[in-house]
Every structure is written in structure tokens, then in C-alpha cells.
Cation:proton antiporter
Amino acid sequence: MRYLFPLMAITVVFYGLVSLPFDGAMERGGVAISIGFLMLSSYFMGGIAEKAKLPRITGYLACGILFGPHLLGLVDSETVVEMRFIDGLALTFIALAAGGELKIPGLKERIKVIALNILFQVTAIFFGCVVILFFLGPIYGVIPPNNISIAVTAGLVTASVMASLSPSTMMAVISETRAAGPFTESIMGITVAMDVVVLILFTLSVTFGGLFVNPGGDLNSNIVFILVFEIVGNIGVGALLGIGLINYIKYVNRDLSVILLLFALLITSLAQFFSEYLTGIWGFNIVIEPLLIAITAGFVVENLSPKGDELLKTIDESSLPIYVIFFAVAGASLDLKIVSNVWALTLIIMGYRLFALFTGSLAAGRILKEPKIESRWMGISYTAQAGVSIGLAVKLGAIFPDWGVPVASLILSVVTLNQIVGPVFLKLALERVGETKKRGKNPLHYRKNRGKIEVTG
């Protein structure tokens, strides 16, 4: 009742605003009012989810789905589109925190675990997705029949997106459960590293797949240069910005939470501008990836200065409204009708992806003789997918408009279900391995107690 009555009250008030004529008040401030409604209602629904022993972000997502354009429609599709600017800002902010969680000593200890998990998971996902799309894609009408080149290309591109994980979900659940320990460090490192791997795999799949589909086309001879430039360039820019943050914290250190939000906005805006600018000058697609820049910046602050704890503490204290509105908007953007159109193939790919993640983690754990309980629960920790997956699916539809659009819809339907169940699986895994409530309400607790972890309920 503590959360239900306020949720009902704010819903009634907002319904009145969108239903009654107020001389265009909603038209003038519709987006701002809708953001306020989603923040408040999502907060209360997150509380309800917590009472039900679910992650709070499950409540945020459910709120967006419920009140979004595809169910009750209190927040219409045009308003959701106008809210999409929140995605880039929030993802960049969260990525900064993800980079700050990567400590070099911890990574050195877990590097074999991270590398082997990525290798096995990617291999299993690629093999299965290519086979599934090749044999079942034509049957379900996702790809044209009797076209081997399109079937293989669709499988490769789908696999590259299915390999992507969700650092934003990982950070939100870890922050909420106050998880810490070797298992948490491993899944965080794997999730962040996998994003870089996925960007490379997607570019290669699209490039070589395009040549396979159109044999008369030319292979872009600059593909290696483009990949190297994008990765090195993004990391270089992130390192410079990280050094800038170190100096700000060291010499100014005022209103850090506001500065970090401005920092995230700056990265997001400049990344889009320079991507378009460099693409226009050089004639081929250059992607300046704000997530990689932000992760690098956070990593630099954490590992090249003593200011990492202060950065994480500030982010942790400011993160609640970011998580609330980000996942609420993400929920409002999820179209369950897409799932209904290709539900059978969606469930097949979703089920196989879970199987590949589970078996890949289990095999890596056995080879490295990791604790059995960690190996058993690691795979389902990666179920969730979000921003990067959606962006790549949309990009696929734009690159191959003839057959890419239905494949992109299939990918989005899988991502939708993964994002709904992923946070629940992640929280369950963290609880089963016993790493929840291992630090206080900010990241400083665990870092100051490494080696003698205290339970602070």
C-alpha cells in the first residue's frame, strides 16, 4: 500500500492532464510532464517490484510498458520518441560508472575467466544463430527462401547482436543489490569487454555479409583501418577526457554530480556530431561510440588516480533518477506486438542464446577450475540486452532495407524479452553465489574492505 496508493494517485492526475483540455498545456510541456510522470510512477512501481523480491528496474520497465504507447497509451509514441535523448545521456552516465568499476588488479586476477567466457559464448552463439536462421528463417518468413547467401549473412549479423550484453542493466542491479566479489568483478568485466567485441563482430559481419549477398560488390579495403581508427580513437578520446576529470576532481571538486551529467551530455552530443562529420569527409561510415569513450574515461579515473572512489560515490548517489527514467523510457519503447508477430522463432533464439551463455560459462569455469556455483550461475547473468542491441538492430534494417527489416524486427523481439527477464535472472544469480549486500550503500565499502568482506545489510 505504501507504493500502490501514490502510484494510483499520480496515474489519475496524469490521466486528467492528458484527457482534459487545458489550452494546450500538454502540447507546450508534454514531454517534461510525461518525464515527470514516468519518474514518479516508475519509482513507486519499482518499490512494488522490490516488495515482490524482484529487481527495482523490473518495476521501472514494467511501468514504461504499462503506460507506454503499446498498452494503456498514457504516454504516446511521439512523446516516447522525443524522450529518446535520455537514452544517450543515461547510457553514457552509466558507462562512466561501469568503467570506474574496472580495477586493474581485479582484472588481472580474472583475465583468463573474462577471455575464455567471451570466446566460448561468442562461438556458441554464432554457430547456433547461423544454423537457426539458415533452416528456420525461411520457414517463418523472416528471410527469403532458397537464398543461402542471405540466410548465412542474416545468421552472422543476428549472432553478433545476440552476443551483446547490457552494462546498464548490470550496473543497475549490482548497485541495487550492493553486490561485490570475484563473481561480480568477472561478470562486469565480461559485460564491458563484450560490447567492444560485439561492435567489431557486427562491423565484420555486415561488411563481409554484404559482399556475400552482393558478389559483384567491392570489399571495403579500408575495413581494417576503420576498425582500428574507431577503437583506438574512442579509447584515446576517453583517456583524455578521463585525465580532464581527474584534474577537475583534484583542483575544483565542486558540484561533481552536475559536472558528470554535463560530461555525459558532452560525450553524447560530440560523438554524434563527429560521427556524421567524419563520415561526410571520408565517405565511409565512422562510428564514434560514446559508451566506449565513457567506459575508458571511468577506467582512467579509477586506475590512474586516487579519485576513483570519489567518482563512483558521486555517481552512486546520483544514479537513482537516471536508472528510473532510463529504464522507464526503455520499457515504453518496447513493442510487444513485434514479439507476437514472430513469437515462435523469438522463443527459439532466446532459448538457444540462454543455452549458449550457460554452456559457454560452464565450460570456461570447468577448464579454469572456478567455483562450481559461479560457473552454474554466470551464464544467466548475461541475459539482459538493451541500448547497444537495439541500436545495432536498427542499423541492420537501414543497411539492408530489403531483407534486413524483418530480421531486425526478429532481433528486437528477442531483445525485448531478454530485457524483461534479464534483471530477474541477474539478481537471482548474485543472490545464489552469495555476493549481494557485500558493500555499503556506495562503492567505497567494498573497496576499503577487500580481502575481509563484511556483510552490511
